[in-house]
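Morning!

As promised:
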Amino acid sequence: MRHFVLAAVALGAVAMPLAAQPADRGAVDRGAVNRIIDEGTNHSQVMQTAQYLSDMIGARLTNSPAMRKAEDWTQSRFRDWGLKNVHKEGFEFGRGWWIERSQVRMTTPRVIELTAIPIAWSPPTNGTISAPVIVAPMSKAEDLDQWRGKLAGKIVLVTRPDEGSEPDRAPFRRYDDADIAKMDEFEQPKYDPEAADRRMKRATFAKQLDAFLKAEGALAYATMSSRDGKLIHGTGYLFASGDSQVMPGFEIAAEDYRRLARLAKVGPAPVVEMTSVVHYDDTDSKAYNIIAEIPGSDAKAGYVMAGAHLDSWVAGDGAADNGAGTAMIMEAARILADMGVRPKRTIRFALWAGEEQGLLGSLAYVEQHLATRGDPNVPEKTGLERYFGWQQRWPIHPRPGYGDLAAYFNIDNGSGKLRGLYAENNPAVVPIFREWLAPFAAMGANHVVMSRTGGTDHVFMQAVGVPGFQFIQDPLDYGSRLHHTNVDTFDHLKAEDMRQGSIVLASLLLDAANADQALPRPPMPTEPVPTDPYAYPDEE
Amino acid sequence: MRHFVLAAVALGAVAMPLAAQPADRGAVDRGAVNRIIDEGTNHSQVMQTAQYLSDMIGARLTNSPAMRKAEDWTQSRFRDWGLKNVHKEGFEFGRGWWIERSQVRMTTPRVIELTAIPIAWSPPTNGTISAPVIVAPMSKAEDLDQWRGKLAGKIVLVTRPDEGSEPDRAPFRRYDDADIAKMDEFEQPKYDPEAADRRMKRATFAKQLDAFLKAEGALAYATMSSRDGKLIHGTGYLFASGDSQVMPGFEIAAEDYRRLARLAKVGPAPVVEMTSVVHYDDTDSKAYNIIAEIPGSDAKAGYVMAGAHLDSWVAGDGAADNGAGTAMIMEAARILADMGVRPKRTIRFALWAGEEQGLLGSLAYVEQHLATRGDPNVPEKTGLERYFGWQQRWPIHPRPGYGDLAAYFNIDNGSGKLRGLYAENNPAVVPIFREWLAPFAAMGANHVVMSRTGGTDHVFMQAVGVPGFQFIQDPLDYGSRLHHTNVDTFDHLKAEDMRQGSIVLASLLLDAANADQALPRPPMPTEPVPTDPYAYPDEE
């Protein structure tokens, strides 16, 4: 009930500095499109950019030494290309972490190398741990008790093993018209505070588990990869300074994990050897967003912005997630800078940090430039709790620059070509986007659908009423095998798609920057009133 | 021309001890089917058998210590179940080999673990090799010269890197009626001696490459996996005693290999560290086929036989290839032994060794029991050369037991359920098989198609005119990701399918063993006469 009561208090207290404005289809410079296409095809650098980020720099876990290199390199590219006001903007994040070496093997009942990766921000093993495994599935606080007294000296397998998968859908695919048509649906928001509570509980479980395993005298733990076929991820969220886990932890490939679990069931527990040489880097606890601009001619007209997250997880090279998006953002910047455009509004390019840990870079941008939320005297949580909790904080306090951001466009769905835009439940923009995308019908990029999307850096802009959008992209094999895995490598990026994406993005940004009027905004969000009485939480 | 000239000499010199016999539909014991189904479902042990082979014993490379365990364990299971004449039959093979530990890492321009596996039968690195890579694609003798003088002190990447794949077909699938209908086609044999020559050249290239790399002072070499997505195989064929390679070699996952190749192209060659602790086992150079029987009541009626290869490659656990087939063969034996059947003909069960190195176990069986080929004074090659060359040896010399084997049934297509039989270009068996398979229409196993299949242990039986057959099996994900890879593990086997397979096989064997007459045989093969004048080789 807490959330609802708070809503009643907060209602009506929210400032709404900008009224919705009429649609504006004007100021499309058709001549620019062909110059953009020439630069983006015959002189494209998008794949060179993506290759440097993926192959040479590689995985860019936020605050890791590789991410620091990427922060420097992307700024220097922006400067080389003539972008203005290139700088980084810091926000408090936590620790850096990187893997020097790791190895996991089963040594009895037979010897075999296992495919595994240290959990991000887990501590090193300090040599090699060798111990029998125990299968002790634990995914919430209530699961812990039954394993008390049973884990000492063990390597604890904490995921409940499943059966092998039967992947009956092509891993690589493109959208046809029917796929896209299904996305064109206005979905009413749901009032579900319980879902938020459940997510918060999950977010705090990693710390509880860590403390429990330590108290029980376990030596290390392992999770099972959520994907078959030796794909591994190594995701972990205990990155805040002073919040690190004490137990070494690994994610083991599903096939190897299930084998351990089966062997433990039918005979003596297999013995596993684990070695991780991993390092924390506490040189600077701040993470940094990278900003670059093409200045506008009208200082009062505000700015439009495009962004992608520069950080990645650590198992692959962060190629599709999100070297691809980063490279397309950077290439659009390069194309427009090379053309010497001087739009009405400033065009800002943003490369976010900390996206993989909860959209933290774009959230920091929102708080630094657009709006804060909730009672400033109630301290915020860190890590995933901050991510899950932020949208439950009321009211919203707009900052002075709130009205300046006219539109935000995000790219974060791999290297598939742009097929159009999600209108994100903002019907007023549909005719405008259709107009802007009209030249790209033959490139397949002229679709505008109503769906609202989540999970990436436009979310917290939407959460404070800024028009933030994401592109429809051909899915390719992003979701099936690349997303967060050890095969997120440059060879799975599609050059033609990424050139197309850079072109469409550059053109759209120019249109948005030159439009007579800013895009129609949604109303400033206020705390939702439950629309379904059955949606009330059952208990206090 | 050599092959053709030889053919003219040999024509007519081949004995044909058994004339084709009329089709025989008789002696089907319908009551037995239901007892088989009861035993094969309510009391099935097929998954326990497959699990022991895959999980506990694991990869069973021919002559490796694990394969020796499997030879002992399978014989002891056969004995436990009451099979008769359980024994092993040796043939000269070569060396055993196994992996204790291996690791491959890139150390510059950044540090990353690579997914890799030592090539089977490659020597150990004796510590860690660290050297820059060079991309030097070599796949045939003519490729070597251009790399002379360039490989000293290098780790040589010998595969030409390709682009990433776009897997646009579901990895897991079952046959529908249309798929099966396409298999029902009689295909005329092709006279293509050049193809055999090309294969022979490929078979000898590994030794030439090894000698070249050694002479050039290379430190090690690596191949690229033929599959995307971190799947690796580690296949290698220099297993003959006295024929081992001297260069350490690894197969590297496609993503990791391509990254090395790209980095080498745009900047200083990356440095790679390679460690393999692998061991040869020369305790016994013989490999062994495992034989077990249910004795027939009529000593003059000969025998029918079912087989699967027990050996596997080394990257996975040999679960689908061919723990699944082995377990189904063993389960059919167990079911029939448990029922106490006493068929007219003996039913022999065979578990082959050396299949993965060229069907060598079943070839040995053919030579020991059925027929030899070619001039006995011309010594045969070893390894892959023997495999590719054997069918080019003329004439065929039947052995005294040639006529005793009435039919051979092979299982080697993963754990997918049996959908029926390939008639293998032997139309005379079609009505007989249809009759025998009729009870299994509701299990989906009543299809009989004409196609001839290859690549496994019925091939050399067919090559001497013995009716050898393979089952149609649902493909599942066998070809897409399990076949020879590091994810060929027990969790990808399908229990219902394997129970079905064991039942159908047991019933079919009983029908074949009790049939009034043996299956119609093809004529004894003689050297083919070219049917297409353009098929002659261009040069001598």
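Chain B has two domains: 2-93+285-514, 96-281.

Hope this helps with the figure draft.
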